[in-house]
Every structure is written in structure tokens, then in C-alpha cells.
Amino acid sequence: MHLKPVTVVDDITPADFKRNYFSTNTPVVIKNFSKKWPAYSKWNWDYFKEIVGDKKVGIYNNVKSDAYTPVNKADDYTTFGEYVDMIRKGPAAWRIFLFNIFSHAPELTKDFTWPDEYMKGFVKRVPMLFTGGQGSITHIHFDIDLSHILHTQFEGRKKVLLFPYSEQYKLYRKPFEVLSLADFSNYYDADKSKLDTQKFPALKIANGLEVTLEHGDTLFMPGGYWHHMEYLDSGFAMSLRALNNSVGGKLKGLWNIAGMRNIDTLMKKTIPHKWYDWKEKKIFEAANRELALSKA
């Protein structure tokens, strides 16, 4: 893979953000974006455990879903307080996905400010919390609705790998899904990496970005960007989502949710093996075309 660092700035005006990053669909990390929020110094494990420790949550392990695994189905359930106690003890590859902590503790919405001056269309009813124990992994994917994301890390460090949507065939995207057939786990560690470039040779020509997020860092991920995240420490982050600003992006996101996902679900239920075989064939055909173009 050809990887470059994500651009990092300390501060940025709304005008510069729109001109240099939002309008060009370019990721950027803003170091001081969240430091003016009460959440920056107020939010921690003890505080969250105090206010939502008794809430039941679904937790997810690092096993990468296969052709027959239900998407987004939790691997186990526990209370948020028990989860915090578990991941504080050391490496624990369990994460919580799309936890709407704000529905349980609406007072938390007073701890940050929606940055409407930077972009419009925020879905304000669903700010989401993402948490993970040290070693947990969010496998590479792109968000199905193609929303723009401001992702702020509040505790711990997290390594993030990013690719533009246009790199999808080099990444071995599964047809009718937002996932890759390849496993990017520990891609940055030669001793632990599961990235198989012999089986997936087009990965060698994929062009991406990487960054390690720390406390207070806010990452802008444009709509459609592929992202893979690994928790280097136990930590949590909040995502603020804004609807795609282009008509084409909105329509494609709607198709992904209402059409693509339903077709995939139906086919997995009716002819799972034939469906998987067809997908696998298409995946490698598309990747081989990318390889051929790179050599032309």
C-alpha cells in the first residue's frame, strides 16, 4: 500500500476548512477543535460509568464477519459499567458500536457544540459514542449513508487507516456491501499483520492515508471514505454525522440503505453459497482490472 500521513493542523477557520478540505473531500485532523468543549476535560470512564453504568450494551469482538455473518449483530451483552471495568484491566478486544449514550443521558449534549459553521446537515438526534478496549478493531468499511464525519477521540490512542471511495476495487470491496474481503488487522505491524498481499495483490497499489488520534484530536472523514481503526489503548470517541452535501451523494446513500442492503440480505437468505461465489468472482475480476491498468 502507498500510505501518506493525514494532514494535521492545530486550528482552522470555517472558511479554510471548507475551501481546503470539505470541498475537496480531503481528510484532516484538527488538534484543538474540541478543546473549547466542556467534554474535553469532563468526559472520562468514571463519569460515564456514573451516569450510564447500568445500561445494557451490545459488545463486539475482533472476528471479521464472513459471507454468512449477520451484519452489526452483537457478539455479547453486558452493562456499560461492567464493560468499563473489563477493558480497564488491560488488553481487551471488545468494542461498543454506535452507542447512543445521549438518549440515556441527554445532559451530555450540553458538553459540546455542533459545529454548524464548518458544515451543514448534521443529524443532531444521533451523535454516537464509539468505545474500544486495547487491541480492539473496527474492520475496514465505508459508512453506508455516505455521511461526512467529524470523529473526536476523547481517551486513549487509536490508529486510523483511510482510503478514498475510488480505491474500492483495489481494496477488494464485496459487491452490495460496504466491506472488504481482505483483513487489515494490525496492517502496520509486520509480525502481527493479517494483510495477505499474495492473495490480494491489488492492495499493493492502493493509495491511502494513516494517522494516530490522541485525546482531543478531531478527524474529518469525507463521505464515502473507507476507514479501518485499531485501539492502541482503551478509549472512546464521538462521531458527529452530517448528511452528504451533494445530490449524487444523497441519492447513492439512499440506494445503499434502501436498495443495496436489502438485496444483499435477501440473497444471503435465499442462495447464500451461490451469492458468495458470485461475489468472490466479481471481487477478483475488478481487482485484476485495477492491476492491469496500473501496468499499462
Question: What would you note in describing this structure?
Answer:
By secondary structure, the protein is α+β, with helices and mostly antiparallel strands. Helix content is 28%, strand content 24%. The protein is built from seven helices and 14 strands. It has helices at 14-22, 39-42, 45-52, 80-88, 101-104, 247-270, 272-295; strands at residues 2-5, 7-9, 28-30, 56-59, 76-79, 95-99, 128-132, 137-141, 148-155, 158-163, 207-213, 218-221, 226-231, 235-242. The strands form three sheets. The protein has a seven-stranded mixed β-sheet, with no helix packed on it. A five-stranded mixed β-sheet has the order 1-11-10-13-8, with no helix packed on it. β2, α1 and β3 form a beta-alpha-beta unit. α6 packs across α7 (272-295). The two termini are 19 Å apart. The mean pLDDT is 91.
Shape category: globular
Total number of beta strands: 14
Helices and strands, in N-to-C order? EEHEHHEEHEHEEEEEEEEHH
Q: Report the mean per-residue pLDDT as an integer.
A: 91
Alpha carbon gap, first and last residue? 19 Å
Assign a percent range to the helix content: 25-40%
Structural class: alpha+beta
Proportion of residues in extended strands: 15-25%
Sheet with most strands: 7 strands, mixed
Question: Helical stretch count?
Answer: 7
The radius of gyration computed from the alpha-carbon positions, rounded to a whole number of angstroms, is: 19 Å
Poorly predicted regions: none
Q: How do the strands of the widest beta sheet line up side by side?
A: 2-3-12-9-14-7-6
